[in-house]
Amino acid sequence: MSLTIPDQWLAEAGITEQEARLELACRLYDSGQLTLAQGIRWPDVTRTAFEDALLDRGLPIHKLSTEDLAHDLKSLISLQEIQ
């Protein structure tokens, strides 16, 4: 599938095709529809550039689930008990 955005729309928005791809990739990553690797690959940017774009938009680079946080907390408690 290909998506065509008329040049006029990009011009009216004041962005390039590359900037539009990056914007869309950031939004799709934030909504969980793209992985970090996909978000980097689609607009063809470096990982650093993609992470910077996320931060510029106030979006998190990494999203931890409740399970991830619970596991990390359990690990920290275990480490504290060892000391």
Question: What do you see in this structure?
Answer:
- By secondary structure, this protein is mostly helical.
- The protein has one domain.
- Helix content is 65%, strand content 0%.
- The protein contains 5 helices and no strands.
- The chain has helices spanning 7-13, 17-30, 36-41, 47-56, 66-82.
- The relative contact order is 0.10.
What is this structure's SSE topology?
Layout: H1 7-13, H2 17-30, H3 36-41, H4 47-56, H5 66-82
Uncertain residue ranges: none
In quaternary terms, these chains amount to: single chain
Run of helices and strands: HHHHH
User: If you average the pLDDT, what whole number results?
Assistant: 92
Computed over alpha carbons, the radius of gyration is 18 Å
Return the domain count: 1
Which class best fits the helix and strand makeup?
mainly alpha
* DSSP strand tally: 0
Number of helices: 5
Strand content is: under 5%
Main beta sheet strand tally, sense and closure: none
Helix content: 55-70%
So what's the overall shape? elongated
Distance between the termini: 57 Å
Key descriptive features of the protein:
single chain; 83 residues; mainly alpha
Quick description:
This protein is mostly helical. The protein has helices spanning 7-13, 17-30, 36-41, 47-56, 66-82.
